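INTERNAL AUDIT FORM
Audit reference: QA-55
Scope: verify that the stored structure record matches its stored sequence.
Auditor: D.O.
Record contents follow.
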Amino acid sequence: MRTLKQSPELREKFQQQVDGKKSVKRQEVQESLGNGFLGSLGAAVFEIKQFQNQFKGNVGEWSVSLLLKSLPDSWVMFNNALIPTSNVNTLTEIDLLIIGTGGIFLVEVKTWKGSFTAYKDKWKRREGNNWESISDSPTSQSIYHQRMFSQWINSLIPNLPNGVVKAPVIFPVAKWLGVTDCSVPVLQGIPALLQMIVSSDDCLTPMQVQVIAEAVEDLTIPAQNVEISKPISKPKLIKRDNLKD
């Protein structure tokens, strides 16, 4: 499998978007605890948790992508692929974007440990003897990615086969999963993902794979148009000689 990359400028644009959201959340945490010592401490803890989550996510995505290298070179992969959303000039990130003759796979990697259950995209985590609801549904996130990518790629390349965009969620280290009637595939372990990919029927031609990969690789976000006001023209001076009594 070949690994492709998007431009540093696109990554910088997305990082600015992420930093803006983090700043707002950090401010909310600090204000909820007050602007004194407790507020500063809460903001620091928030930053540490954000870093830890990012680190664990990167390790999980790297381990999955490493094992997917066994796919033939006719397949391509993007790590942390960025695609446009329906909101103007905003991006969303896909952990692993894999494109081949078997289809387009938007892979969401969840390095969650423990036991989980889901019914119709509503998730719960086992905490001792209880099951606690999870507000951040991984399958709902994948549904969103699938919708955004499908809208974008179909606007560029019409007449792609129905169902060509798949959005599986993979749990590489979870202890147990119980999933029923979710909108996207939920897989436990990397071998399950690899099996899903290699067993998919061909639905794209090599030329379509290349065109789609180039569209992702060359994605750019246009700079916001700044409306420049036209200069106000100076009033013409009227000569006294032209004035009539």
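Auditor finding: record pair retrieved intact. The chain has five helices and eleven strands.
Action required: none
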